[in-house]
Amino acid sequence: KGDMQMLLVSVRMKYLKKATIIVLIVVIISFVLMAFLGARVKKVSSAHAISSNEDRVAFLNSCGWIVSEKPVEEIDVIIPSEFNGVYSDYNKLQQKQGYDLSLYKGVTAKKYTYEVRNYPDVVENVQASVLIYKGRVIGGDVSSMELNGFMEALMHKNSTKKDITAKDSTKNGG
Q: What CA–CA distance (Å, rounded) separates 156 from 170?
């Protein structure tokens, strides 16, 4: 009878150790997932809230751009589920300015495009686009519509609002 009790205690301890290890692993995985998802939610919620045309224009103004009062284009854009080379490059541009379109793969966003009226040394055919999803800015760019044009982040590192205003006043004789 004593050997039987010893065997039962031994078996129970073995299962108890396994159960403890499994619970620990589940707890660790839960913490890792919460940290990952928490970072994702924080990144998404830190995006700029936009609910009207005035908000979009004010946002672009805060980036240093004077834009048309109304968008020249409003379209639905589906963020691809898989990024090809072009979209990967575009997302790198977005990441440089604090956005990440990979968080929105497969969703339909709204793209609003405005005419930029104060791009340095370029008089026409420059547009600013803003991507909006559920009332949040999730990306955007400033680009030239010319054949050998350009595309850059919304807030150009060499063109702050102050710099652009100074360049404009110089061009106009002021």
A: 20
